[in-house]
Specification:
single chain; 355 residues; alpha+beta; Nucleoside Triphosphate Pyrophosphohydrolase; 3-stranded antiparallel sheet; 14 helices
């Protein structure tokens, strides 16, 4: 339906909206899909170079589906939330096998694909086909919660259901794509989390939060909680030619499918643990200061330990995929951000640039 809210938003968007984002140039379902997945929990400025590299390497569904998972994770390295990349790869294969290489044109069909929820499916339908389908990403939640004075944490089902209804009410027929981009832009540029620019907002005169001075209070923040802390040891094993050992992580769990250092339980002696696990003797060189990496649900404290192999070669003994990393090879691997940083520091400190 058309509304005064959507009309004012569209007028503002024509003059002040973002019209030069790379995925807007040719909004095919595939390009919209990739951009929407990348933009989850990630800022536009961060996504732009990743999107460009991804499109160059995987220009369509067929190429993405046929690519090794390592190639996909390698291009995703540093973007975080790696389950998104694994889901993209599986979904592309499913699209090739079940949909003839074209993304489904129904919400049900899209939501059946790995990693695509209701809002992402709506964005694909709206932005690539101009169909009046609502979305509810973080920006849209914030705009609607403030404008309509919706109290309660949007993660609660009751609040989320109310926001979905409001989102559907405002989508105008015939201008769904422009409106959807407009409300996302409003949330990203004016109706921001902190210090919103209400004086420049095209819908401020009907905004309930603005009227009551509740801009900073809405949407209601998630109830406070303390994150648990986990501890681990990264065993950075070096051989006689300066390579370091990496293992592929299991598909499930944190950093699933990425390459990392062997992880030793913090209560174990790392020298004995390496000997038991790989059947080779190592000597302790040094322990680096502890570093912390924070996930959505917990903190991970990591102690990197430099170990030197005493014999040539390392017997893997059915411990899963592993490889010796040569300086310069890390750029082609899927690596979590703290792992890549430690690798760069390791080679740099030894006079070898990892480029």
């Amino acid at each position: 339906m058309n509304s005064d809210f959507s009309n004012r938003l569209l007028d503002w968007f024509r003059q002040h909206g973002r019209h030069d984002l790379p995925w807007q140039a040719d909004p095919t379902p595939y390009r919209v899909w990739i951009s929407e997945i990348m933009l989850q929990q990630t800022q536009v400025s961060t996504v732009i170079p990743y999107f460009a590299r991804f499109m160059q390497r995987f220009p369509d569904v067929a190429v993405l589906a046929a690519a090794p998972l390592d190639d996909v994770l390698g291009l995703w390295s540093g973007l975080g939330y790696y389950a998104r990349a694994r889901c993209l790869h599986r979904a592309a294969q499913q699209i090739m096998q079940q949909h003839g290489g074209a993304l489904p044109r129904t919400l049900t069909g899209l939501e059946a694909l790995p990693g695509i929820g209701r809002s992402t499916a709506g964005a694909i339908m709206t932005l690539s086909h101009n169909l009046p389908v609502p979305i509810l990403d973080g920006n849209v939640k914030r705009v609607l919660a403030r404008h309509h004075g919706v109290e309660g944490w949007p993660g609660e089902k009751r609040v989320e259901a109310q926001l979905w209804e409001l989102s559907a009410e405002h989508v105008p027929a015939g201008q769904a794509a422009a409106y959807t981009q407009a409300i996302m832009d409003l949330g990203a540029t004016l109706c921001t989390r902190a210090r919103p620019h209400c004086d420049d907002c095209p819908v401020a005169q009907t905004c309930r939060a603005h009227e009551l001075g509740l801009q900073e209070a809405l949407p209601t923040k998630r109830p406070a909680r303390s994150l648990p802390v986990k501890n681990t040891v990264f065993a950075m094993v070096q051989n006689h030619v300066g390579q370091i050992l990496l293992q592929r992580r299991p598909e499930s769990g944190i950093w699933g499918g990425l390459w990392s250092f062997p992880e030793c339980p913090p209560e174990a002696d790392v020298v004995d643990w390496i000997s038991d696990k790989f059947g080779s003797e190592v000597e302790l060189v040094s322990r680096a200061p502890e570093l912390r990496h924070t996930f959505t649900h917990f903190h991970l404290n990591i102690v990197p330990v430099h170990l030197l192999l005493r014999r040539d070669g390392l017997a893997i003994r059915d411990q899963g995929a592993a490889q010796w990393l040569t300086p310069g090879a890390a750029t082609s691997l899927g690596l979590a951000a703290p792992v890549r940083r430690l690798i760069d520091e390791f080679f740099s400190n030894r006079g070898v640039a990892n480029t």
